[in-house]
Design brief:
Strand content: 5-15%
Distance between the termini: 17 Å
Shape: globular
Order of helices and strands: EEEHHEHHHHEHEHH
Oligomer: single chain
Structural class: alpha/beta
Helix content: 40-55%
Largest sheet: 6 strands, parallel
Number of strands: 6
């Protein structure tokens, strides 16, 4: 049976550990690759740019090379966004102030900041805290979240895009998912009721079921 190569990129404040439960969900012929940004230890990168399925969580969408997105037959966006801030000026000012406060607190009490972040994501604490935190890397990627605007060309060139979002996401409002869906002609989106921002951990099974349905449809349309 042909092996399906799957890339899963975590978002800010997480690690490759957030995909741990997924290894028991994927069929045997699906090979799961989980790069790690290195917030809690040495970073781990994937050198290949050819994956049939690319799964991203939150800011992870901005961490995957555009050519990797373009080459994928299915891109899955969990709690993601093209731009973290709203188009409305007053809402954007509010969210920018929130990120600025996080950047300042990151210098003083990084472990406490991450603990509060996980609580807002609707998940328990990361078992690797409070180990060695790479505060500089966390700061650089948090600044990326503040500034990055995703060019959607890579997503638009992918075979298909599946957008999954929680309707109680307190980190990335569900409006960001709707905006991304409206901008892409090759996307479907599904909103999970009573779900927060920690979809890879809190809703691993539900996410994979949706992904597997989308993948089977893609294969049937070849």
């Amino acid at each position: 049976m042909t092996e399906v190569e799957v890339l899963a990129q975590h978002g800010w404040g997480f690690s490759a550990e957030c995909w741990r439960d997924w290894r028991d969900l994927l069929p045997a012929n699906f090979a799961l690759h989980c790069p790690d940004r290195g917030y809690f230890g040495p970073p781990c990168c994937e050198t290949s740019s050819r994956f049939q399925i690319v799964i991203t969580h939150s800011l992870g969408l901005h961490m995957v090379a555009s050519e990797c997105l373009q080459a994928a037959e299915l891109v899955v966006v969990l709690g993601g966004f093209a731009h973290f801030h709203a188009d409305r000026a007053n809402l954007a000012r509010r969210s920018r102030r929130t990120v600025d406060r996080m950047l300042a607190r990151l210098q003083r009490e990084p472990a406490a900041l991450l603990g509060d972040f996980y609580a807002r994501c609707g998940i328990g604490g990361n078992s690797r805290l409070p180990g060695d935190l790479d505060v500089a890397r966390l700061r650089a990627d948090l600044q990326c979240l503040q500034d990055s605007v995703l060019g959607i060309e890579g997503l638009a060139a992918a075979g298909h895009v599946l957008i999954l979002h929680g309707d109680e996401d307190r980190i990335v409002p569900v409006e960001r998912a709707e905006e991304l869906h409206e901008a892409l002609g090759n996307s479907d989106r599904s909103i999970f009721p009573s779900a927060g921002h920690g979809l890879p951990i809190s809703h691993a099974r539900e996410c994979w079921q949706a992904i597997e349905r989308a993948w089977r449809l893609q294969c049937a349309q070849r």
